[in-house]
Amino acid sequence: MFPLPGGDESIDLRDLLQCWDKATARLQETHESLRKEVTRLTDELEVKNRELARKNRLADLGLVASHIAHEVRNGLMPLTLYTGMLKRNLGADAESSRVIGKIESGLTVLNTTVDDLLHFTADRQPNRSYVPTSELIRDVCEDLAPQLQAQGVQLRLDLTDREMLLADKDMLKRAFLNLTLNALDVMPKGGILTITSQVNFGHLEIEFADTGCGITSGDVRRIFDPFFSTKSTGTGLGLAIVQRVVEVHEGQVSAMNCPDFGAAFTLMFPIKAMKAAA
C-alpha cells in the first residue's frame, strides 16, 4: 500500500497498474484510429490530386484540340465543296468517279474526327428540359436500324416508360448514339445489343450490354480516357464524350464485363433530375 499526499488514504499498487494499463490501451487505440484516419485522408488526397492533375491536362488538351478542330473544319469545307464540283464535272468517267469517291470517304472520316473533337472540347452547360429517355433511345436505334440489320445485330429493349430525365436532349442523344455505335464496333459479325432502363437505389440506370469480346483487365481502367481506343480506326473519343455528358448531368458511368461474354456500360442519373411521365 502506498500513502497518498495530504492524508492517510492509500492505493493498492495493483489498482494503480491496472489504471495505467487501461490508459495505455486507450492511448494505443486512439493512436491506431488516428493512424488509420491519416492514411485514409492521405490516400483520398492523392486520388483528388491525380483527378485534379488529369482535369488540368484535359483542359489544356481541350484548348489545343478545339483550335485544331476549328482550323481543320475550315479547311474541310472548301475541299468538300470542290470535290463535289469536280465529281459533277467528270460526269460518266467511272475511274475518276471511283477516285473521287475515295476522296469523299476520306473527307467524311476527317469530318467525323473533327466532330468528335468539338463535342469533346465543348464546355457548355446542359440546356435542360424533361426528356423521355426511352423514346430517345428508340429514336437512336431507329436511326441505326440499317446498320444493325446489315451487321446481323439483334436489338433487345427493356425500357421503363414512366420517367423523364431533366437533361440536355442533344447531349443525351449523343451519349446514347456513341454507346450504340461502340456496341456495333465490337460485333462486326453479329450479336445481341440489350438496352435496359430502370429506377434503382435513387437513380435512373440505363445499361447498354453487347455480346462482343469484352474488355481486358488493363483496358477497364483506361476505357474512358480520351484518345484511348482498342480499334485501328476512330478517334478514341466516343466513350470519353459519354463520360463527359453523364458527368455534366451529375451522373456516373461505369464499364464491366458481362458474366458470360461481352461488356456492359451503365449510366446512372440521380432521381432528383427525374419526374414521372404523364
Q: Into how many domains do the coordinates divide?
A: 2
Please count the helical segments.
Answer: 7
By CATH, the topology of the largest domain is Heat Shock Protein 90
pLDDT averaged residue by residue: 82
CATH superfamily of the largest domain: Histidine kinase-like ATPase, C-terminal domain
Name given to the CATH architecture of the largest domain:
2-Layer Sandwich
Percentage beta strand: 15-25%
Terminal CA distance reads: 84 Å
Catalogue the unreliable spans: none
Total beta-strand segments: 10
Secondary-structure-derived class: alpha+beta
The main sheet comes to: 5 strands, mixed
* Portion in helices: 55-70%
Architecture overview:
The chain has helices at residues 13-90, 94-121, 133-143, 145-151, 169-185, 217-220, 238-248; strands at residues 2-3, 10-11, 129-131, 153-158, 163-167, 191-200, 203-209, 252-257, 263-270, 274-276. The termini are far apart. With 278 residues, it is an alpha+beta fold. It has a five-stranded mixed sheet with strand order 4-6-7-9-8. It has a three-stranded antiparallel sheet with strand order 3-5-10. The protein folds into two domains: 1-123, Helix Hairpins (Orthogonal Bundle); 129-276, Histidine kinase-like ATPase, C-terminal domain (Heat Shock Protein 90, 2-Layer Sandwich). It has seven helices and ten strands. Pfam families: HATPase_c (PF02518).
